[in-house]
Amino acid sequence: MDWGSTRLRAWACSRDGSVLQRADSAQGAAGLAPEQFEPALLELVEPWLTTEKRTTVIACGMAGARQGWIDAPYSAVPCRPLSVERLIEAPVTDPRLRVLIVPGLSQASPADVMRGEETQLAGVLAAQPGYRGLVCLPGTHCKWAELQEGRVIAFRTFMTGELYALLSQSSVLRHSLHADTDTGDGWDSNVFVEATRQALGHPEQVWAELFGLRAQGLLHGQAPATARARLSGLLIGAELAAARSLWQGRKVTLVGNIGLPALYLEALRAQDIEVQALNTQRTTLDGLTQVFTLISAESQETTR
Are residues 101 and 225 in the same domain? Predict the structure, then answer.
């Protein structure tokens, strides 16, 4: 189960990780008080439960946040992304349930944290045992993580997605990115790539270029689709410039292949970076399945 800030996604899986059923809801962790988590979960997965035995639910994401179901303390890097010893059991009243929450990861210097992405990193390692290299996890807060010998060595977070949302919805640029007659579906890939290259080459100029989006619309009638592509390119390019020491000359594994991850994929490949893309859902499920496998192995060892 992946409990994000805005959505809850659950999968009923067989022991080998095959998906038997799936369900999701808009009851994200950000809108729930601690006592509301169990009812929200039951509303979604109750048809999957049985009175014959307890169903173990593995949850990653914001359910373990300080304001979530129960605080699951961060594990400090360098460490393995997941381990049975660090799982936190959530309080439940329904006897059919056992809920185990995966804790996030923390980094002391530079200070950083993640929740949910650690499960995807475990999924990368499950799919590619012995993987050594860089993993990019695009999202509202994009993570760049270094993996070595089955452990997360270090990571950095960039608020690029949130900056795009704030600028496009709450700043003066919103007037240039969303015209009354615009459907919001248009996109100009060439403009995006060019803006990415520009920001990579001169990241210090990005802040001046941002207001230029407004001026281009007023003076030259720049289309909203072009402005959106250029804004995305400038922000992602600035992120890539800041992360250059991480990815330059290296192969990158990117988790996700549609939407925002596709933009990162395009931007990196435009710089001749070798990138392999892994499916986000599959990677998350691989990580959750790994937790269940470890729990099962520990249980069998205990009963011997």
Answer: no
